[in-house]
Fold:
Amino acid sequence: RPAPTDSPAERDFHPTPPHPMITDSQIETWLREDVGHHDVTNQVPGETTGRLVAKEDGVAAGLDAAATVFDYLDVTVTDRVEDGTAIEAGDTVLAVSGPARDVLRGERVAVNIAGHASGIATKTDAAVAAAREGSPDDAVRVAATRKTTPGLRGVEKRAVAAAGGDTHRLDLSHMVMVKDNHVAEMGLEGAVEHFRDRVSFATKIEVEVEEPEDAPRAAAAGADIVLLDNMNPDTTERAVEMLRERTAELGREVLAEASGGLTVETVDDYAATGVDVVSMGSLTHSARTLDYSFRTGE
Structure:
């Protein structure tokens, strides 16, 4: 990530490649929702320029997606800061030029996407900084969850990654998560065995536990990762200690993840417990939108 002291003018501009997780049909859906059936508002003749300007400090994200919207409208993106850049109020983060009608049609979608993603990146950046306070050796990863907005997971996960967070699993195919419902149906050991027989050798299995005593059980059953769910920091630390003792006996590494109600204010306490990962659904489902303004003809 560019250093926070970098100003937009000091950063090299890189043309925007097609966004790997946004299709033309998705952009069309976004634009159709905003433009509607008979757009009179944006019937403006001639050519113009536009700038996306931050109205508050934060971490930029979603600019690759915003640029893709303008590219789809054949509006030229002339400058853009990199996602993950620390920005200040007044910074121009994206600049475009093209037909006034198309610049204006892309404006609101671009502002909404960038504001939403930048809010997630800003919150993730704060969580990563807080976790480093609790674990100065940077051993703890701050991860998002699948609590994302339908249709926007790619944008939201990329915003988390841009701010130094971990995306966790992107979808159900990336990892098996053995949850309480599975355990209720098959038992802890039975559930792990059930999925172990069905997954690829490359697919990890994570087991969610709610009691410290179940953490070493999950490891012994074959879990690659143990999720310590809804435990307070003291209980989490005890579970980690029990897990480490058991994995030492087993002679293999099993990661420990803390999750369930973690906030930016408490993440440092969890980071200090010895876990490898702290996951926070609030990074995506509760992040405040970063305020941007789009200005034309300047």
